[in-house]
């Protein structure tokens, strides 16, 4: 078997036999499979037969006899194939005498991605084999410009003797912007038997050069539209769009895609993300219409960059760009703010505004607006989506006209409202994590965040609404202004976060541990909103680096975080100063520069995790110089060999630990990581230099904080003593 692990890429499964000799009342043999990222044993017990029913007790022998019998079973299990869970190969041709076809093909960690703007993308696949203990010995990968992927006109790797099924770098002809490429792979096992070819996968390129962008940044009101004609049916059509702070794209009356809160938050002066859509089926011969709704997001302004390329069945190419020919008008969203909420007046809707032949009465030409300044970069990570819908468990009426709904679970997202009522009725929705004793919601922990949505009815039968450009962290929802008495399903919780895929799980016989795991999963995913955030409810919701640092490994154990962290590392690099310093939050709108050293460690640590868990050497190559700049910044800040400045230290700890100790520890940790990165990249002289520096920091740490009498560090708090243990 090759790579049976649920985790996407590596860490081959290990088979562990555990002979568990307990007391005479509970002798049993345990057999389980275990791997680095999935730590749940699957246990098979063979009962000794001891217990109250002594009639069937077959193992009532002395201890030596028991050991002999268990030894027999141990040898039996070692000589017998022990079934391991096998990955699904639905739709794959699996040979009984050799490897099955590779499956789960990915490019840049994503399945059939659009808009790849990497000139030499990387390929990944999983393997299957009917035999235990098999490994890949070689592969052949071909890339073609034709859908059958037979021609290999772009690249044929030839047979490559390698066991790698991850991080295989494209080495073919130069890729062109806005093109579709097709690829497939086959592998050889340890005996040299070849697999069938995989199913054909594809990837599409984005726009590689700034000169590929022909559009202008335009703005005006929060609705923008453009009509155009197509002389023939489209054969292939792609949209490249960035709408700041958030956008919703509609073509011919329908929303395009299932993303929400796009694009991801970045340092807009350095990098602006764009998204690519396949809109071939959304277009038709003749008249077509594009509609874009804009929200403020974290950009706090509105701007649109848009390009559409349509290759017609007649061979002609039609291009539509954002420019002054677009029209703009105010829409029904009166206010949108990530923290305060959204106000939507349905009476101001303009039916058909995103359809052809709409009467553009009172619409004005769009205005050219100031560009955000950052380089347009493809959003190559999972999008934020509505991933679940929750019906409230209870509804209470703690005061006249006040209805409080309990979802039974904290979520990040918003509420979907269903309501009938008179035109102009203002339904207010307020969000909270807590309740007062009288049953009213408690928003005190939200601080200045208002967390309040308004929907003003148009008075036309049942109206269903949910916001577009805000989100909240909440369990409880207060509804006021509702016409009549709402039902339990008049509101529903919409769970919204970056749609990372689960890759790990944990369960055991102790329910409290299962509950803790469930809480961890909810807490992690509700704080993934294109960046890892510190919270999802109050007036922060920022990329605090300390939170990102301490949760990164846990996140990797539970979710496929590779593409997400690839993007976030670039976010961190974008905030780096000329002196090498980085900031407490990324993107930086709050907190200090330089970052607290414990917070700044998120940069080298997540980069190292990307190599450690995903084998991503390219990340180390891409960020090595910036990581070195950061470590050298810290080195200049050191006093007597230690970095001591600290803002947060062991944040909100019960026991007091000096912040200087925490900072000194993370300085050492950063240097050790940089040394390891240098070694991996073949920079041995630099690796030796930083290993020597780490040893000096270690000696200085002991001189500064170790009490030779008590053998405790800095007063003996848990943190003060465990961090040196980590150093070793």
Please report the total strand number as a whole number.
36
- Roughly what fraction of the amino acids lie in strands? 25-35%
Please give the alpha-carbon distance between the first and last residues. 38 Å
- Structural class per helix/strand content? alpha+beta
The 3D shape can be described as: globular
CATH C-level class of the largest domain is Mainly Alpha
Which stretches are low in confidence, meaning pLDDT under 50 for 5 or more residues running?
1-95
Instruction: Report the sheet with the most strands, covering strand number, pairing sense and barrel closure.
Output: 10 strands, mixed
Task: Tally the structural domains.
Answer: 4
Number of helices: 10
Residue share in helix: 10-25%
CATH architecture of the largest domain: Alpha/alpha barrel
Instruction: Output the CATH topology of the largest domain.
Output: Glycosyltransferase
Rg, Cα atoms, Å: 29 Å
Instruction: Let me know the average pLDDT.
Output: 89
Provide the descriptors you would attach to this structure in a database record.
about 725 residues; alpha+beta; Jelly Rolls; 4 domains; 10-stranded mixed sheet; 6-stranded antiparallel sheet; about 20% helix; globular
